[in-house]
From TrEMBL, chains A, B:
PANTHER family: N-ACETYLMANNOSAMINE KINASE, ROK (REPRESSOR, ORF, KINASE) FAMILY. The keyword Kinase applies. Its EC number is 2.7.1.2. Gene3D superfamilies: 3.30.420.40. SUPFAM superfamilies: Actin-like ATPase domain. The keyword Transferase applies. Keywords: Kinase, Transferase. Belongs to the ROK (NagC/XylR) family. One of its GO terms (molecular function) is glucokinase activity. This is Glucokinase.
């Protein structure tokens, strides 16, 4: 439940020094959790395997969150947990607090906010994991102070969060699927469509396409980038394809939305200027009168989603004084 | 100056029955004007050539508007003009009421709202012409009641207005340039970029590309569509290219923004199902798990921009009670 006002870094202290938000990120493999304190810092970050009963995935998540809440209360007796910020992958209706669909985790139309509020008696937000990471980057990270921003997380796939006028675009839970927008030269995608950006532009695609082309197994995109730096022509071609695909998608955003900055995170962003320099050049070459987005490296790290989950719950507290 | 609240069809009567908004649409060739009354109806629609002094384009527009206001006051003595809604093409900063740039009309960073309010003593809004036409379609036209909508006007070029969560996306004046986003198979564009949608998908492109391919001059896209219907293979190929380019762009919007409806207006929309049926099929084929946008024909007609201009000024009156 995100307030519909344009969001800015939250105003004034919502939490007292002895209060915290419990932030929980339910992933396909692991569930991460932490307390977010009044200074927007995470404390007690933990990771445990996500274990859900088949056919009862939503109820299992609620039970796990109740157990995790108990653990934090026991371990941090002097911190009062004021609210819970839960995030998850898949199609999420943040306004209603409903998990529309998650193929990996196995729920459909599950009312997380309602069930968790009933189970804990605390205010709860339920948000999208990548959207929450985007919130953190826009509100207190790389794009702080900017209004028209796209956050792209480039790893196994490409996930996105789109901000216009300071507001994240929700699209009924369907917005931000930049990795599943078509690019020229794209390949058949596991999603069922053809030519999706992530079939060429993701770190996973760089590793897979290099292995296919060279007949040589590699240990991820990082190794392909090392081969490219050493002059390997096949690695160069595969990285060029990724850069062109990413530039194509970024220019679509610039033309359609007037995006002023693109924040790039995830594994591929660790390539630094080896990625950013050619990507800037490719974007620059494609645009004419359009607004030219700055390309920025994500600054919030791997726990951006947890921080964003905490910020969402803080907003809710701020809106329900 | 658009209020930042999510807009819905405006609430309650802002205008009394004896009051009106003066709506003015300054185009590259003609200036249209009308009174918008309390029932959102246009009265006294007029069209005159746009005449601007070279080098003083902005000031000329202000003088012309003052003259037009005088004419309407004389012709409609029993209607009190409460506000002026002015719209124009080019890059427009609606929040500041500034014309950032218009290549055709010749201004740069001209403060229309400020100057017109000083010259007339009335509240003034200054908006983008296509954005205003989009406002009309979303608020009282084809997309009434929908929140995530793109309005595409397909004529000589392709212009757009993008709505997310009921709000038009502004992007500092740069949003909505769907016609200048790249598509596969696109050609060099007069904007300086390559492959823009409007080089293949616009009515103008259909006529030009058929003439180039067949060596036969045609009287606009309408004639190419007639030739297609009669079995002309070259016409079929050119229309197929346009449909595929438009479908590509619509699917970008669906993936990125979760667009639920695309309203198509402009000359090409008059082709009706000859355009809409293959376009629906092409969009449907490209998408997988994405939200599938409905394709709707624009319903507000050629004066949609004037109506939208009037609605913008009504909003301003509603926000300054």
């Amino acid at each position: 439940m995100i307030p519909s006002e344009p969001t800015s870094p939250h105003q004034g202290p919502v939490l007292a020094p002895d209060e915290a938000i419990l932030a929980i990120d339910v992933g396909g493999t692991d569930t991460k959790s932490a307390l977010l304190d009044s200074a927007d810092q995470l404390q007690g970050v933990q990771r445990r395997p996500t274990v859900l009963r088949p056919g009862e995935a939503g109820d299992s998540v609620v039970e796990n969150v109740v157990a995790i809440l108990g653990e934090y209360r026991a371990a941090w007796p002097h911190k009062r947990v004021r609210a819970i910020g839960l995030i998850a992958p898949g199609l999420v209706d943040e306004r209603k607090g409903v998990g529309i669909f998650s193929a990996n985790l196995g729920w459909r139309d599950y009312p997380f906010t309602e069930r968790l509020e009933a189970a804990t008696g605390l205010p709860v937000t339920f948000g999208h994991d990548v959207g929450a990471a985007g919130d953190a980057e826009v509100r207190i990270g790389a794009a702080r102070g900017l209004a028209d921003v796209v956050v792209m997380i480039i790893g196994t796939g490409v996930a996105g969060a789109v901000f216009c006028g300071g507001q994240r675009i929700l699209g009924g839970g369907y917005a931000g699927e930049i990795g599943h927008a078509e690019v020229p030269g794209g390949e058949p995608c596991r999603c069922g469509a053809h030519g999706c950006l992530e079939t060429v532009g993701a770190a996973g695609a760089i590793a897979r396409r290099y292995a296919e082309r060279s007949g040589r197994a590699v240990n991820g995109a990082r190794e392909v980038l090392q081969l490219q730096a050493a002059g390997d022509a096949q690695a160069q071609a595969v990285v060029d394809d990724a850069v062109n695909a990413l530039a194509f998608s970024i220019c679509q955003l610039a033309a359609t939305l007037g995006t002023e900055a693109v924040v790039i995170g995830g594994g591929l962003a660790q390539a630094g200027e080896q990625l950013f320099a050619p990507l800037r050049a490719a974007v620059d070459e494609r645009l004419s009168f359009h607004r030219r987005p700055r390309l920025l490296a994500a600054s919030m790290g791997q726990d951006a989603g947890l921080i964003g989950a905490g910020l969402q719950a803080q907003d809710l507290l701020g809106a329900r004084p």
